[in-house]
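Pilot study result, target chain (82 residues):
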Amino acid sequence: MVGDIVIVKDDALAGRSWPLGRITATHQGDDGIVRVVDVLLRGKEYRRSTNRLILLLEEDIGASSPPEDVRDQAPEEEKIAA
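Predicted structure:
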């Protein structure tokens, strides 16, 4: 999904040196399945196969809304005094 943070596998590098990237675009095949994405790495955009990526962090769809206050979810007798 666009915005996800991924590790990009690179056979020329040791695993601990694989770079982080952000998916900027997805490309569906004729069957509607995404197998290729554009990844922003070190300020440049590259097209990579999804089988060369490791999902590290999914973009949070609800990130623009404020987090819910957990005190509002607790039963009345367990609410924390603000």
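One observation from the pilot: Residues 18 and 78 are 46 Å apart (CA to CA). A full batch analysis is planned for the follow-on phase.
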